[in-house]
Design goal:
With 406 residues, the chain is of the alpha/beta class. Among the domains are: 186 residues, HUPs (Rossmann fold, 3-Layer(aba) Sandwich), CATH 3.40.50; 78 residues, no CATH class. Helices cover 51% and strands 10% of the residues. Strands 1, 2, 3, 4, 5, 6, 7 and 8 form an eight-stranded mixed β-sheet that branches. α4 packs across α8, α5 crosses α8 and α18 packs antiparallel against α19. It is globular.
Length: 406
Amino acid sequence: MKAVGVIVEYNPFHNGHFHHLNETRQKTDADCLIAVMSGNFLQRGEPAIVSKWARAKMALAAGVDVVIELPYAFAVQAAEQFAHGAVQLLAAIGCQELCFGSESGEISAFLSAAQTWLEQKETFDSLIRTGLSRGQSFPKAAAEAWQTFGAAPLDLSKPNNVLGFAYVKAIWQNKLAMMPRTIPRLAAGYHDESFSHPSIASATSLRKTLRQTGRLESIAAYVPPAALEQLRQYRETYGRFHDWEVYFPLLKYRLLTATEADLRRIAGVEEGIEHRLKQHIAHAETFAAFIAAVKTKRYTWTRLQRLCAHVLTNFTKEEQAKAANPTYIRLLGMSETGRRYLKQVKKSAALPLVARASKLNGDPLYEQEKRAAAVYAAAFPEPLYSAALKEEYATAPIYASGIERK
């Protein structure tokens, strides 16, 4: 069976994601579609709108055959480390190809950029660091670095291009036998906050609309029915969706009770930013106001969100340094096709395939995952809090036979 991988967050799953899956299957002739998906906290440092289990059900309903989890130590990171963990997991489970969405839509641009980077890595990375030290954003620093080598083959001001570039680099750096492919992103941009197409919208705009209206009907045109139903069931069960404002009281408590020395141990706390965190937290009444007050040219909104996630989950620099590579493949869900594929590769997979979280106790990557799960569940009052914690430890991989696939 030919396995093809995708790297996803599905926050939430929408019609653009459905298009990506269909195009991936058609262009690659995949027999088994495998998604490596961030858990309850995401690459940009945000809590997922609904749990990983609900999002895994969305993926399976849309045609994904296997869903595996990207551990927190890789999921809540800048593009390079995020990509490093994700592509290694897909390679370990036997994926022959990786297909990602991008603004470019041309794999030749990514291959050309990666080739130049490999040949000029030290110079390129030095130029990037210089730009960042001057307070530039990564896209700005990257654009200036490319000017040294002539015209940039790839527009790295676009977020999906940045991630795609990181995926290709990670494949080449790790010498993985996995072919990268890309398809163009449809209509809505990654950061678009409003609707401009009758059926395609960014996840950012969907979350914003849900926050403003509270009505699932307001996003129904942009989300497959099965995904909309998962959102409905989740809110009925838990009474809410997740965003940073839900966790702000916990973050405020953590920052007020931590010393600056405590904060300096946390991953992402550099260059004295702990002083600004302590300075502004006491007076901030919302997460958005807090980040706006702390934000600088060097500490962007996304970088601060990741840092705050690490504060909440107590993810330290020492733990980050030790998280060099994934150590397991945790299964979140599968279709019947996925079950057959997993049976086929179980003995040949480069990492252990794990269905039950209890088997991971003691693994440093999973110990961090447990802390993240505890923080995520803290959004709920009892007895929902305890139920959500139990879900993390006791839930078996979801089997798609019980899910209506659309």
